[in-house]
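User: Fold both of these, please.

Assistant: Here is the first one.
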Amino acid sequence: MAKVKYKRGNGRTYTNISQYTKTFLKDFNANLRSNIARAPKEDIENEIIITILSGQSPVKGKRFKQYNKEYADRFKNGERSPVNMLRTGKMLESLQIKQIRGKNGLLIAFRNRLSVIHDKLGAGKSKVIRRLIPRTGEEFKSSITKLIKKLFVNNVRKSTR
């Protein structure tokens, strides 16, 4: 390994490139985690909620099946669509977007137990599954994915300054 004295802007002096690289990566990861934790995530949250309120699943390639006639007559004045998941509003209010502790990633989840029923178990008598969050092998619709990528790109740029 080449012995080179290199002085970085933080005042540290390094005698070889691998020592500098390790320190740089450690600092970069710490800065990135910090920047992601502080970054505003409201744009992503708003896009997910707007998608659901428009009667669409935020999961790419998935659609919400319309309400059955009995449910629509009872709760929606006969309107079978759009399925906007807004009977009480509590489930949509439970959307949570936060940084995964100690990692450079995001956790996107609904905290309300009704979301598990709609997303995994199936709701109502017909057990209709309405996908709210992508599972393994699935992804968000492109509008949501673009906002997530934008958050990470902006924070990687901040971390390298």
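And the second sequence with its predicted structure:
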Amino acid sequence: MEYLLYSLTAGLPTAFAIIIGMSCSPFIALTILAGVGSLLNMGVIEPGVIPFSETLMHLPIAQMNVFIILLIITTLKGILGLTSASKIICDVFLDKVENIIGAICAIVGVYVITSVTVVYAYPITDAAVNGNGIWTSLVMTILSLAMALVAYAIYFVMKTLIFAIDILALLASPIPGVTALATISKYVIVGIYVWHALASPRVSSIIGLVCLTAAFFLFRWSRRIILYYRKIYLRPLLTMIFRNGRTVPLVPKKMPKSVFREFGTVDVCLEVFFMNNTTAFHKRELCYFIKADDKHYLFKKRLLGKAITIKLTDDTYLEKCYRFIRIFTDEGANYRKIHAVLSREHNTNINTIISEFNLINYNLILEERRRVMVEETSQKIQTFKNKLRSKITHIIAPNK
């Protein structure tokens, strides 16, 4: 039994480190695994350089043609991630596939490693425990399944943090080169880490454990960022591509139970994201913009804690922007009590929203300000021309 436990746990640092790398980027990790495995099979890399090289050599992806295909896909995804626009498209069509592949590889990989260890160690264990090896095998198989579930949990938590960091880099895209720099840095760091996970698994597993601890502490923050990105950026893009012209209902078909318990019947219920850091809401936290009984509220039901309700009494403005629709109070102030954003899916019924909530159309205010500014600028230019013409006339007149 002790031998079996030792055999089972010997490869765990490598498996753990690879799962961390796969959480950061499944395509990069799989490409490196396929490349190293195929080079080991070809004799380019000596087996003594890589611990557990036999396992890598027998991987189904340890073939040169598979490596080339994965390399092309990884390179293509990296190129698409260099600009913010192409990265959003890439997230829509490739990220879900990559996440599914990564999760399957993480779960199956750990299960196979532990199961194969059980198979090879079974004869020794069977002899050592005098005929009780079948029970040992059953226990280790259950342990393998448990470890596979743990592998998925590790993958999910780490992937959530990495995706949130990618989104923050994307949201900083107005700064030239930030998205490209973030993508290139990610590829280099993940590539180096996965290689070290194969060559020096113990050190890599310690680094991975530190990263995983940080990911656990930042999990709720990461989930808020991802939910904001999907509903504000990705879903409108999908709607535009596949359901262009669709009008989003002002009351969702599946009303949140917390909203129904708090308000009963509502006239309008919109998903918005609060953009201020306050004691009531976190920045980019999902809440509901509600009209009930001719009164307007921002509402949020926390998982652990009482519901938070803010009644809107001040003048509230709505501004249609390029990325989203802004709803805010305290126009012109340095700090706004209420500042939330709404998905661009509601562009088709924006006038109805303004009417239902008695909002002030801030775009009209901006247009009027621009018109006044243009008129004032034109008047200043005309006044300058008149003064210049008068001076020229005054200088030329005496000479005549």
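The chain has 14 helices and eight strands.
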